[in-house]
Amino acid sequence: MSDALDIALRLVAVFAVFLVFPLVIGQTEHKVMAHMQGRLGPMYAGGFHGWAQLVADGVKFAQKEDIVPAGADRRIFQLAPAVALLPYLLVLVAIPIGPHNAVGQALDAGIFFVLAVMGVGVLGSLMAGWASANKFSLLGGLRTAAQLLAYELPMLLAAASVAMAAGTLSLPGIVEAFHWWWVPWQIVGGVVFFTAGLAELQRPPFDMPVADSEIIFGAYTEYTGLRFALFLLAEYAGIVVLCALTSVLFLGGWHGPFGADGLGWLWTLLKTVVLAFGVIWLRVTYPRLREDQLQKLAWTVLIPLALAQIALTGVVKVVIS
């Protein structure tokens, strides 16, 4: 009975994080962009600092008419938002937030699990583009497929490097094996992992699949109301997952300068929030890449860097042993 209660409490905690954190990231993006770009709109809703902007957005999406194009594949069209969103809920189950088994479910091959399931989330965009009966949506879906193929490899190679250093594929095991001196010689892998993750989430400057100046809004052009809101929520959930994974793999997760086990979850949360702020900052700062520039960055820069990181990890492991 106690085991069942423990599992239930863990699932409730993961589900609560899944429901709350992406919305917090979305609200934060409104405010950060408003300050950085001098946008007045998001600062007025509800009065003090525009606190009701998120509520206003939710009401707006709920009121919009739910439209399915006449020529669309109806079932695939309706299923795509769920396929885009739910994989991030599964990934959160395997990400440790603190010591002493503070994780939804510890997996021996957790790093393979999270990367495989995150890749499934991109299929939601492919399904949306294919099922919309719109050439711009189809083009956005094809760009999503090309982007996934290009950036999945450097992301996997970078994660493999830190797994080699730790000698385990378990996410809690990687954090437990972490030492502060890992940061300087694993930082290249961390940058490659984080950059490839942004590209898979189609976040600026890697948002070519939704380039409004060329293909309206890509795979999401025909979506309205709550289904469109689910795609946005999937993007913010992906930011939470990517930043949490980066902090766990490359920044020591729950390890902090004071070494207090009781505050381990706070260090993980703090690192995740700082990285999420960086994601928003990148959106405000850099223009999107051209499609050829996007592919060139993956194949000629990120993949060689990831391979070099693996070679360096092998050398360091040999020297240490």
UniProtKB/TrEMBL annotation:
Pfam families: NADHdh (PF00146)
Catalytic activity: a quinone + NADH + 5 H(+)(in) = a quinol + NAD(+) + 4 H(+)(out)
Main subcellular location of this protein, as a coarse class: membrane
Membrane-spanning intervals of the chain: 7-26, 76-97, 109-132, 153-174, 180-199, 228-252, 264-285, 297-320
Catalytic EC class: translocase
The UniProt record lists the keyword Nucleotide-binding: no
Domain of life of the source: Bacteria
Compartments reported by the entry: Cell membrane; Membrane
EC identifiers of the protein: 7.1.1.-
Presence of keyword Cell membrane: yes
Membrane topology: Multi-pass membrane protein
Subunit structure of this chain's protein: NDH-1 is composed of 14 different subunits. Subunits NuoA, H, J, K, L, M, N constitute the membrane sector of the complex.
Function: NDH-1 shuttles electrons from NADH, via FMN and iron-sulfur (Fe-S) centers, to quinones in the respiratory chain. The immediate electron acceptor for the enzyme in this species is believed to be ubiquinone. Couples the redox reaction to proton translocation (for every two electrons transferred, four hydrogen ions are translocated across the cytoplasmic membrane), and thus conserves the redox energy in a proton gradient. This subunit may bind ubiquinone.
Similarity annotation: Belongs to the complex I subunit 1 family.
UniProt protein name: NADH-quinone oxidoreductase subunit H
Species this chain originates from: Streptomyces sirii
Lineage, opening ranks: Bacteria, Bacillati, Actinomycetota, Actinomycetes, Kitasatosporales
Gene coding for it: nuoH
